[in-house]
Amino acid sequence: MHAFIGTVPFTIIEAINFVIANEIKDADLYVVKVFDGAEKVGERIRGTGVFKNVYILDDVLLTYPITFSKCINVVRNGKKVLNLLKKKKYDFCYYNNSGWLINSIFYTGFIKENPNIKNNFLEHTYCSYVTDYAQKPWYLRWLIKMVGLKCMDGSMLDKLYLFEPDLMCTRYDGKIEKMKKLDKSNPRLVNALNTAFEYNVSENQYAAKEVIIMEQGPMKVEFDKEKFWNSVFECIDLDKTIIKAHPRQKESTLAKCGAAISKNHTLPWELEILNNDISNKVQITIFSGACVSPKLMFDDEPTVIFLYKLLPVDYTFLGKEIMAFADAVGGKYREKDKYFVPETFEELKEYCIKHGIVKK
Predict the structure, then answer these.
(1) What is the superkingdom listed in this entry's lineage (predicted)?
(2) Structural domain tally of the chain?
């Protein structure tokens, strides 16, 4: 029997794909109510029949900024999880969140009833490639032990599943295994994911657009964003462009630029990749991790333009490891020219002219 944990849409997508791709017949899914609509997503997953059981749990993910009240809620809800896991028998469990506390809650419950369980980890986006899961503040281990949990610090992991194992560039625990990519030609997978997240194929907003601008989440630096993006817009044809706001934004910050704005920006980007021929699209972003998802998760190769070297501030705040990882993803492209990091706006415009997306 297999147990999967789903906290955010990405981890749920990953769990569904893992079960279907590996033809697992006896798996349970624990959906934690971390994001808006999580309960409804869990209910729809039940209807797909991918999992034997789908359990929907109150939030046990501790997020920043950490407050006393958040800790109390997590501990209270964590006890509910432990009670639920009593007498549950599993041979394998799969973690896919980088948070120690939430993983320790499940780990404590799993090993109490299943001392010989195999502990596996499914990659948690690019973070799993560049960040050592075991590196956490000392007080977190102390907090976990103080509330009566066994710390899931990674040392007990048996396997670490990655879409591209050879891109791993940090210390890790467990044996690395290659994870199967999402197969667009698998109708069971497509139907299960579209059902889970209520994807409406008839309302595809990206099919008629060639250029997709992926907005950035909150950044650590300040600069004149309007001036920056106006310079970018001078290089592209806005009639061919659609803008996808970051999922954590209420609305796009580029709404006045004249390009189309995606209405369903909170829908997981992986669903759009799944339902579109992304290979003929151009993704433009300052540095959104979503732009490496097509290659990592599907082996699709859309044109990708990273703009971070054009920022009017020192871009090293992004992190050398993450930038090196992004370059390594580009190195895996069969068509190297489709992965581009311009260093000047002149280079950006020349590239856009070459690819037929320049402003006329």
Answers:
(1) Bacteria
(2) 2
Strands 211-214 and 118-122, bridge-based pairing:
unpaired
Q: pLDDT digit string (tens) for 174-210?
A: 999 999 999 999 999 999 999 999 999 888 889 899 9
pLDDT tens by residue, 129-161: 999 999 988 888 888 898 899 999 999 999 999
What CA–CA distance (Å, rounded) separates 259 from 297?
28
Find where tokens 């010989």 sit: 116
Q: What is the pLDDT of residues 39-84, one digit of tens each?
A: 999 999 999 999 999 999 998 877 777 777 887 888 889 999 999 9
Distance CA 105, CA 101 (A): 6
Structural domain including 35 reads 2-196
Looking at the structure, do residues 114 and 134 belong to the same domain, yes or no? yes
Residues 177 and 293 in one domain: no
pLDDT at residue 248 is higher than 80: no
Nearest to 122 by CA among 12, 287, 213: 12
Structure tokens at 251: 């609305």
Residue 191: predicted pLDDT: 98
> Among 265, 331, 322, which Cα is nearest to 304's?
331
**Residue that finishes a domain, picked among 161, 196, 231:** 196
Distances (CA, A) of 24 to 2, 17, 54, 61, 271: 8, 10, 15, 27, 22
Return the CATH number at 41. 3.40.50
Are residues 164 and 218 located together in one domain of the fold?
Answer: no
Q: Evaluate whether residue 87 is within a structural domain.
A: yes
Q: Which residues pair with 29 in a beta bridge?
A: 4, 54
- Count of other CB atoms within 10 angstroms of residue 350: 14
Answer for the pair 151, 100: CB distance below 8 angstroms, yes or no. Answer: yes
